[in-house]
Write a structure and sequence with these properties.
Blueprint (H helix, E strand, L loop, with lengths): L2 H18 L15 E8 L6 E8 L4 E6 L8 H23 L3 E5 L11 H7 L55 H11 L3 E7 L1 H7 L4 H6 L3 E10 L12 H15 L3 E2 L1 H7 L13 E3 L8 E3 L3 E6 L7 E5 L16 E3 L3 E9 L2 E2 L4 E7 L9 E2 L7 E3 L2 E4 L2 E4 L7 E2 L8 E3 L2 E3 L2 E5 L2 E6 L4 E10 L17 E8 L2 E5 L3 E2 L5 E6 L6 E7 L9 E11 L2
Length: 535
């Protein structure tokens, strides 16, 4: 026998004795009838052949760790995939609590936004314990597709999340650890020997975070991945058939070969009578996934993929006109090519009955790049200028963290920045706001680019704040809406305005609204905006 393999095996045995012996001292004895049986799946590292084994365990010795179930991600599709999985994760955690398992909620880098919560404060009161290094965890690098599942129109990185998804319930007896030491201390106190991992993004967060699977496996805990309640750090390349679902499958297989066994947590709970097959929890998944509150903006035709990964064999039905899908709507059989602005709705059916929650996809195609203006807004005097604050007649008392519209600068200073680009000319504002100008007979068109200002990305990469900006730009001519943007978010491509001005028009108003969700961080810019004159 290889001496190294003998030493690893001995270390693993010592670790098992530690967790089943020392960890179990505080628990009263139970009969084997109280145990549950888990079906563990692994794969041969060379051939990929599937192996299954059964393991019995007292559920009181099991912890369930939910990693990075955040309320936002810099990739819009990744954000929506979290939203899609949260209902099933929430039901699973509820069942785990009922069986006496310890639930740990770990939103990693925003966990201390929960200071003052009993679930976080209880962790600080735990006695310090030395964490052993029992197992040397070695494996090839896991597949990583880059974290953006939006295809050609790739999202830009920011750290905008500020908490957990609001659909994930925090139980009164849950705990919120963040480090390897904290998780291990909980395991010691509660006599835990097994950890089941759920959450996001598998090959980055569930694997590598301090409370992640690799760290706790090295400490001697038996770690298991719930393969049906995780989603990989995604990628999308429809030209070669690479989808976020396939990416997750590949990452799960990598775990099964080199890192840890997996379970189908829904299957395990159903076998225990704690999962109802009639629950309709999962939506149809869309890639790329632009939502009404965070549309996907594109220039060239895009390929959109639909899937129902937890309802194999179900018929996906969809509409492209914004109407509700029914069992008689067009059936999805192959990826869709969208060339124009589209409001997609989809659901999945079996025997005419819906088995998935309805999903929405919002896609907006941008027009051609407008020309530069002959007359820039910054060189004109508006006849009306109002902004975020209190208005008294013609006087505005601007809110303390905003300013009057700024010429050729962002509202709080600095360059005008939209979608990773910097502009020399423009107006920096804060929604809700409006500028109005008299139209001269020579003005033929209003042109400009519009978007959320990105100066806050320069401060800690938008930590905790980048999820908040959301605005809609509108152009009114003589009181009638002539053009508008979709809802714009931070690092969305600049929306392109090229608006004809009818002869005889007298007034143009440029409004920026807060999109109906409040005005927090709604700094926005008109860039290269102004008027093209008649030739």
């Amino acid at each position: 026998m290889n001496p190294h393999r003998r030493s690893i095996g001995s270390a693993w045995l010592i670790g098992c004795l530690l967790v089943t012996g020392a960890f179990g001292l505080g628990l009263p004895a139970r009969s084997r009838a109280d145990e549950i049986e888990l079906t563990l799946r692994t794969r041969d590292p060379k051939t990929g052949a599937v192996r299954t084994t059964a393991e019995r365990v007292d559920p009181r010795r099991v912890g369930v760790i939910a990693v990075d179930v955040w309320n936002f991600h810099w990739c819009k599709t990744a954000t929506m995939r979290v939203d899609a999985l949260v209902p099933r994760i929430d039901r699973a955690l509820e069942a785990a609590r009922a069986m006496g398992m310890t639930v740990m909620l770990c939103p990693s880098d925003v966990v201390d936004n929960y200071v003052g919560f009993p679930q976080r404060e209880a962790v600080f009161a735990l006695p310090r314990v030395d964490v052993p290094s029992v197992v040397e965890v070695k494996c090839p690098p896991a597949p990583d597709a880059g974290g953006c599942a939006c295809g050609r129109e790739r999202c830009a990185v920011n750290y905008g999340w500020d908490g957990m998804h609001p659909g994930l319930r925090i139980g009164p007896d849950d705990l919120m650890p963040d480090t390897r030491d904290e998780v291990y201390a909980i395991c010691r106190k509660n006599g835990l020997t097994h950890l089941i991992y759920v959450g996001f993004h598998t090959q980055v967060c569930l694997l590598g975070k301090p409370m992640g699977l690799k760290a706790m496996k090295s400490a001697g805990l038996k770690c298991v991945l719930a393969r049906d309640m995780t989603d990989a750090h995604p990628g999308y390349d429809p030209a070669r058939g690479f989808t976020p679902d396939l990416n997750t499958e590949q990452v799960v297989e990598h775990f099964e070969k080199y890192l840890a066994p997996t379970i189908g947590l829904q299957e395990e709970l159903a076998r225990l009578g704690r999962w109802d097959s009639r629950w309709v929890l999962d939506p149809v998944w869309i890639a790329p996934w632009g939502a009404p509150q965070r549309p996907h903006l594109f220039e060239q035709p895009i390929i959109v993929t639909l899937s129902a990964p937890f309802q194999p064999g179900a018929e996906i039905r969809y509409t492209l006109d914004g109407s509700a899908p029914t069992a008689g709507s067009p059936r999805y059989t192959a990826p869709l090519t969208l060339a124009d602005t589209t409001h997609l709705r989809a659901s999945a059916f079996r025997d005419g009955q819906p088995v998935c929650r309805e999903s929405e996809g919002s896609f907006a195609r941008m027009g051609p790049m407008p020309p530069l203006p002959d007359v820039y807004l910054g060189d004109l005097s508006p006849i009306r200028s109002v902004g975020f604050g209190h208005t008294y007649g013609q006087n505005v008392r601007y809110s303390g963290n905003t300013r009057a519209p700024q010429k050729d600068h962002a509202n709080l200073g600095g360059d005008i920045r939209i979608n990773r680009s910097k502009y020399r000319r423009g107006i920096g504002m804060h929604a809700p706001c409006e500028l109005a100008y008299a139209i001269k007979p020579s003005y033929a068109r209003f042109v400009g680019l519009a978007g959320v200002d990105e100066n806050l990305i320069g401060i800690s990469n938008g930590s905790n704040l980048a999820r908040y900006p959301s605005v809609v730009f509108k152009v009114f001519i003589d009181g009638k809406e002539a053009a508008s943007s979709p809802l714009m978010r931070i690092q969305s491509p600049a929306w392109r305005f090229d608006v004809p001005i009818p002869e005889g028009a007298r007034l143009i108003s440029l409004a920026i609204t807060d999109a109906g969700d409040g005005s927090r961080e709604d700094f926005a810019d008109w860039a290269n905006a102004g008027f093209v004159v008649r030739k």
